[in-house]
Automatic annotation (TrEMBL):
Homohexamer. GO terms for biological process: 'de novo' CTP biosynthetic process; UDP biosynthetic process. Transmembrane segments: none annotated. CDD domains: AAK_UMPK-PyrH-Ec. UMP binds at residues 54, 75, 136-143. Pathway: Pyrimidine metabolism; CTP biosynthesis via de novo pathway; UDP from UMP (UMPK route): step 1/1. Catalyzes the reversible phosphorylation of UMP to UDP. It is an enzyme of class 2 (transferase). It is found in: Cytoplasm. The keyword Transferase applies. It comes from the Bacteria. This is Uridylate kinase. Its EC number is 2.7.4.22.
Amino acid sequence: MSEIKYKRLLLKLSGETFCKPGEFGINGEYVERIAARIAALSKLGVEIAVVVGGGNFLRGEAFSEKSHIPRHTADYMGMLATVMNAAALQETLESIGQPTRVLSAIEVSAICEPFIRRRCLKHFEEGRVVILAGGTGNPFFSTDTCAALRAAELQADLLIKATKVDGVYTDDPMKNPDAKLLEEVSYTEVLQKGLKVMDPSAVSLCRDNNIPVVVLNIFQEGNITKVLKGERIGTVMG
């Protein structure tokens, strides 16, 4: 068996991975599938921090544009949505025997610990999966930027952006059948071409801190394990 190449992983889950395509909210079956994959990775000895999005409930910027709610308030509402996803994922992980803690950048003391870097590292030592909720705790920043920031803070060996598609394409594959999957792309190319990988601030953070990024389909069984063992899956950004 190949050895694990990356020992500390920052896994970014979009809110859409918590529900069926085109739907909203949380679908128990989808959360269970994600939890099973995360628990399997933890059993391999990988230290795992998960940053969760909230788009299955609300996206701050889009919601603000369609309502009279200012962007900063809408963004805080989106942060609360990530807390709901984090709580669902934690309970599902623990139901299958995987110790887990939720650390939030915004205070929700009834169900989350505050995000403190040293506390997060201690949870790693104890074999716990850490779910990071609340984004950066600040409006106007996406959970992609949060993932890049936490990956840098926690000195993660790899950032995986887990999605429902196989990687980064030259165009939207759902709209353009001629769109091609990119196996590899540089940080600079993503920024210059405006590729829909991560927000520019997130890409810049990864570039400045030399954090490799892999974009892949989390619902393809074994994908993440293969990447952790050094296999080429999805799109590699670096």
